[in-house]
Amino acid sequence: MNLPKAKNTFCPKCNKHTIQKISIYKAGKRRGMAAGERRHAQRKKGYGGQKFPKLAKPAKTTKKVTQVLTCPDCNKKMMKKGIRIRKFELVAK
Ligand SMILES: [Zn+2]
Hints:
The chain is built from one helix and eight strands; from the N terminus they run E-E-E-H-E-E-E-E-E. By secondary structure, the protein is mainly β. About 10% of the residues lie in helices and about 35% in strands. It has one helix spanning about 35-45, and strands at about 1-5, 5-10, 15-25, 65, 65-70, 75-80, 85, 90. The chain has a domain at about 1-25 and about 60-93: Nuclear Transport Factor 2, Chain: A (Roll). The site of zinc ion has 8 residues, from loops.
């Protein structure tokens, strides 16, 4: 699926339509010292440590793609609802 690189859409901060740049959301790097990460490591430790079954046969064959729209005037970032697509490409339109 081809996604446009820019799109004229509403910005709630500027309260008007602006041509916004579209990029794809990527999750940040996981921090090993974060509280949840440490807790998870502690629970998984030792004999019988796996607390939930490992996913052997995933039901979904695709990952969700979330678009991030950036307003050029105020730099506000807005996210769109993620859509499931197998293949995508950002193309100039
Ligand atoms: Zn704006």
